[in-house]
Design a protein that fits this description.
The chain is built from 22 helices and 28 strands. By secondary structure, it is α/β, with parallel strands linked by helices. It folds into three domains: 183 residues, Rossmann fold, CATH 3.40.50; 189 residues, ANL, N-terminal domain (Rossmann fold); 179 residues, GMP Synthetase, Chain A, domain 3.
Length: 655
């Protein structure tokens, strides 16, 4: 691993933005949809707005080394706030906008944020709730003025007013701002991002300008990204994935960042933009596939036949055509016909017609889901990464894309497998430190720069591609010594549109059992078609016909798992359908929707015990958090069902 030298003084995000303003002055840099209309800012305009905002921050007293928290939905003004903070020599700290006040309080206090930039009244209210307890916040800046008229503005300002002040006072602050930008070095902090906290409190990951810029430079070269790309910025700004795609790579390549109007309009906005470069975690692709399958179930018989017929052909030849492998003339002709009648219209509906490069990461994606999108001709690839690596550890080169690997090491990255099977890496993107946590820094990153990922995997000797089995702490052995890898089975279950989430248990036990969350949209649609009445999620989840449908999915997965000799012991023997959706507000998932296994195991210990002691029903009480923050108790009696393993199925067939 060798660190590259900065290109022509491009040592910071502000320097990259200034370069884009000079070299791409009139090219679109940001778009935002508001009130149904797309507003556009060129690189020159965005740079001017950001400098004015930075001077407004200086007028409010922002100092070098201060921390500036940024919280809200994706919008240009919040991205500019991040860069403006960097211009002032401060460190931006994006927060998850759906975090409850208690979670926001921990981050704000941990980093001692002096300034907080909020998207709207909801975020301001969270800050006010914690402001007196943590005593470090001096200024609150908000973007949306709605509902803010009667607030105490002694230490609160509208972002538009801060911008106006910066423009008016530019004669006073131009020299100071230029001096601060010039003082930024390649190894100064660029951003601090907090981990999802699957096993405890989130840790503040400090990433330097070197980390972000060299990673962006290398990966833009890898996928030949240029200033002509279009992306949609819709993922949480606090997530490293959004930061590297919407900030690092966008600044390096100079492409356009498009911000949707809201989460509710995201799919419509995606279709209007038609991005050429797209990133989404598996849950987004799973959700879109669920919606597709729901619509097809409601379609006329002829359309269903058309979809099934051409999708079967697409699965056979689509990935091969995408990778440039030989395909017969007849198959190509049939695929072209399918593209005209099925694949093309479907991609247009999804907003994927113009995608040149697509990525998924964050957690493993089900092979069936991954193969579905590639069959359509979408160049979807997997990458493997984490916050501490500035995202990229491995990527899949074009022509070498498979559902069961995560590719080869990204440019500049070294990867090795320890004797325990744990994956280690070092790269130019390796984080500086965990903020205020030297012990965790030392235990994660050794003196030579090797970082322990916490994931178990191995390199395929014939291809050199990395395969990730599961989280190292989650991979274990069953009572008979067979391998236990829960995520492998959970991803297979989540391929079915009716299953939203699954949690598999079995480490140290004689068999595997599972919790299932149904997808209310998909199963509710199925219930309507089958004239099944229900009044709540809990009632639908406990319906006998729903249990039979889920049993069928589990048994299909068991047949698939049985075909893998290494993981055949992970077949599910018993399952129950949970009476509530697993929720980040209840601590069961992280804000990036990763399962917090330890918390679930403690919280639902009675349900797990019932799965293994032969019970057929179990009564339980669960504490839940309502949308307004109040706590309540949900009581339910759950059924426990048996699922056939392959041996059982074979005995039935023989009989």
């Amino acid at each position: 691993m060798t660190d590259q030298e900065p290109v022509a003084g491009l040592v910071s995000i502000p320097a990259l933005m200034a370069r884009n303003a000079r070299t791409l002055p009139h090219r679109a840099a940001y778009r935002e949809k508001e009130f149904g209309i797309w507003q556009v800012w060129s690189w020159q305009e965005a740079h001017a707005e950001t400098r004015a905002l930075a001077m407004g921050f200086l007028a409010l007293g922002l100092k070098r080394g201060d921390f500036v928290a940024v919280v809200g939905r994706n919008r240009p003004s919040l991205y500019w706030s991040i860069v403006a903070a960097q211009m002032c020599g401060a460190v931006p700290v994006p927060l998850y906008q759906d975090a409850v006040a208690e979670e926001a309080e921990y981050v704000l206090e941990h980093c001692s944020a002096r300034f907080v930039v909020c998207g709207d009244q909801e975020q301001v209210d969270k800050v006010i709730e914690v402001q007196e307890r943590i005593q470090c916040i001096d200024q609150v800046v908000y973007v949306d003025k709605r509902g803010m008229r009667k607030y105490d503005h002694s230490r609160m300002n509208a972002l538009a007013d801060v911008l106006t002040e910066g423009k008016a006072a530019h004669h006073r602050f131009e020299a100071e701002l230029d001096a601060r930008i010039a003082a930024i070095t390649y190894d100064d902090p660029c951003v601090m991002l907090y981990t999802s906290g699957t096993t405890g409190k989130p840790k503040g990951v400090v990433l330097s300008n070197r980390n972000i810029i060299e990673t962006s430079r290398n990966t833009c070269d890898f996928d030949r990204l240029t200033s002509s790309e279009e992306i949609l910025a819709y993922l949480p700004m606090a997530w490293v994935g959004d930061f590297i795609f919407s900030m690092g790579q966008a600044m390096w390549a100079g492409f356009c960042v498009n911000c949707p109007e809201s989460a509710a309009t995201m799919m419509t906005d995606l279709r209007e933009i038609g991005p050429s470069y797209f990133f989404a975690p598996p849950r987004v692709f799973e959700g879109q596939l669920t919606n597709v399958m729901i619509r097809m179930e409601d379609a006329a018989p002829f359309k269903q036949w058309l979809f099934r017929t051409f999708m079967a052909h697409a699965r056979k030849v689509g990935p091969a055509m995408l990778d440039g492998r030989p395909v017969s003339f007849t198959d190509r002709l049939l695929y072209r016909l399918g593209d005209l009648m099925v694949y093309g219209p479907l991609k247009n509906t999804l907003g994927y017609s113009r995608i040149r490069v697509g990525y998924t990461a964050g957690e493993a994606i089900g092979p069936e889901i991954f193969d579905f999108y590639r069959a359509l001709g979408i160049n979807l690839k997997q990458l493997y990464g984490q916050t501490e690596a500035s995202v990229f550890i491995t990527q899949q080169p074009d022509g070498e894309v498979r559902s069961d690997t995560v590719g080869v090491p990204s440019p500049g990255v070294e990867v090795k497998i320890a004797e325990t099977g744990e994956v280690f890496y070092r790269s130019p993107g390796t984080f500086v430190e965990y903020f205020k946590n030297p012990d965790s820094t030392a235990s994660t990153k050794d003196p030579e720069g090797w970082v322990a990922t916490g994931d178990a995997g191995f390199f395929e000797p014939q291809t050199g591609h990395l395969r990730i089995i599961d989280r190292a702490k989650d991979v274990g052995r069953m009572a008979d010594g067979s391998l236990f890898a829960p995520k492998y089975v959970e991803n297979k279950l989540k391929f079915y549109p009716n299953i939203l989430e699954a949690v598999v248990f079995g480490a140290g036990r004689d068999r595997c059992c599972a919790f299932i969350n149904i997808d209310l949209t998909a199963v509710g649609n199925w219930a309507e078609r089958n004239n099944i009445a229900y009044s709540s999620y809990q009632e639908l989840a406990g319906h006998p016909q729903v249990y039979e449908m889920i049993r069928g999915h589990v048994e299909e997965v068991n047949r698939s798992v049985a075909a893998d000799s290494m993981l055949a012991g992970c077949r599910i023997h018993r399952f129950l359908i949970l009476h509530k959706e697993l929720d980040a507000d209840d601590g069961e998932l992280t804000r990036t929707r990763k399962v917090r296994r330890n918390i679930i195991a403690d919280k639902y210990a009675d349900l797990i015990a019932a799965l293994y002691d032969g019970s057929t029903v179990i009564s339980t009480e669960t504490e839940v958090t309502y949308e307004d923050g109040r706590k309540g108790v949900l009581k339910a009696t759950l059924k426990i069902a048996d699922a056939a393993t392959l041996a059982t199925v074979e005995r039935r067939a023989a009989a």
